[in-house]
Amino acid sequence: MTAHVFVFGAGRAGRGLARALRAGGVDVVGVHGRHTGDAVDRVTVGALPGAIADATIVLVTVRDGQLDAALDELAASPLRADAVVLHASGSADPPGLSRLRARGHAAGTFHPLVPLADPSRAPALLRGAWIGVDGDEGARAAGRALAAALGAQTLEIPAGRKPLYHAAAVLVSNFPPVLLALGERAMAESGVDPAVARQALLPLWTAAAENARLAPVPASLTGPAIRGDEQTVRANMDALAGDPMAQEVYRVMTAAVRNVAATR
Fold first, then answer.
1. How far is CA 15 from CA 39, 42, 43, 132, 140, in A?
2. pTM to 2 decimals?
C-alpha cells in the first residue's frame, strides 16, 4: 500500500520531515500547525483539515508538552480505520496513544537521530541517518517504510529505556554546538576578533567530529588530558576563571575525557 502521510506539527522538525518525505517520493497529504510558515511547506492552521481522512500514516511532530493534546485531537478526528499514528518524540511515551489504540490504530515512535534545526537541510541530513522506532508492529513497520523512503536506517528503541536512549541523543546532538559557543567566547575574551574566532574554531570543531567518525575513542582524542599534561590543564583552568560556566564545563569534560579513555 502506498503511504499517504499527514504531518501534525509544523515546527522545524515537522517541516523538515515533510520536505524530506516529499523528496523521497512520499505523498504528503498535509502539514498542519499553529503558523503557516513558508509557502513551500503548505501548512494549514486551525481545525484539522479534511486531508487528515486521506492519511495512512499520521506523523505527530509537536513538542512533548503538546503531545497529549494533539493525540486527543487526532482521536476525535475522522481518521481512516487503517491509519497508523507515529510521534517523533525520543523521550515521551504519551498516554494519548492508548486512546488511538483503543480505536484500532497502530501507534508508536518515529524519532530521527539528526538535529533538524533547518528544514531546508533535512532531506540531506536524513539520508544515511538513523531513526529510532518502537510501538505496535504495524507502527514499527510503517516507521521502517518511511525511513527507507528517506534513505535512513532504523533501530529499535529498547522497551522501558527510552529516557536513557534519548539522553544519549542529547549528549551527542545538543552539547557540541554549546562547546563551540563557549570556545568562541573564550577566544574572543583573549582578544581575538569574535568573527575571526568563530572562523578559526569551526574547522577544529568539524575535524574533531570527523576524527570521531573515522576512529573510535580513545584513538580520536587529542589534547592535554590525553597527553597527561597536567600543567597545561591547570593553566587552562586558571585562564577560564573569569567565565565560571566555561571553567566548570572544562573541568567536567576533562574528567570525562580521562574516564572515557580509561574505560576504552
1. 11, 9, 9, 19, 22
2. 0.92
